[in-house]
Amino acid sequence: MIGVKRKKDLIVVEDLQMVYRVGKIEVPALRGVDFTVKEGEFVAVVGPSGCGKSTLLHLMGGLMKPTAGRILVEGICISSVSDVERTRIRRHKMGFVFQSYNLLNTLTAGENIALAQRIHGDGYYEKGSARRILRLLGVEDKMDHKPCELSGGEQQRVAIARAVVNSPPLLLADEPTGSLDSENSRMVLDILQELNQSSGQTIIIITHDPEAASTAHRVLEMRDGKIVNPVQNLFYAVEDQSS
């Protein structure tokens, strides 16, 4: 008998607002954003510079607190918990990939990943899992190389490995192809698609790149701090074999 397995809400954004204050001037970055991302979705957020995309990602990642509204990650309202709890949630539920890679230049690729494991596991490090994820991303032979010895594409693949080595439910990527040429961009996008399809990794990317956006299941367009194309999410459910 074929049934339908409903996907759970992984992240819920409700009436999210963010206002920056510059002296006595208030600058609204988000003006009431609402959307939901299901487990296993791949969502791209697009829009012109200054529309609020990066602010939205930083808020979803618990890197800032909103002026108003709520963000729920697996049912936990990260916009209202303590700083300590929000840090714990980031450590165990999120991985981050940035345009500038953000690797530590004094550490090798393997050591960058080891540091992420130790932070996640209170000091525990499993070298085998670091090597395994680097092998999957095609850079196992770069494990003992420092970032300055790697190309931009290799650095981004190491950054992705660092973000997913602890199997977080949510991967947040801010312009992951923004600093790469077309060949390396395609390679990084293929890796993200493979992570999503093979392991069910939930991914939200911020991007200006139409090709990057085209790899997602769903595209949310932002302008002036709002979502301007609320579309029906067609990824609510997947068919499941059951008897």
Mind explaining what this structure looks like?
With 243 residues, the chain is of the alpha/beta class. The chain has a single domain (2-103, 168-241), classed as P-loop containing nucleotide triphosphate hydrolases (Rossmann fold, 3-Layer(aba) Sandwich). It has seven helices and twelve strands. It has helices spanning 53-60, 83-93, 109-120, 127-136, 152-164, 182-199, 210-214, and strands at residues 2-6, 9-22, 25-38, 42-46, 68-73, 76-77, 94-98, 170-174, 202-206, 218-223, 226-227, 237-241. The strands form three sheets. A six-stranded mixed beta sheet has the order 7-8-9-4-10-11. It has a four-stranded antiparallel beta sheet with strand order 3-2-5-6, covered by helices on one side. Helix 3 (109-120) packs parallel to helix 5 (152-164). Mean pLDDT is 85; it is low at 232-243.
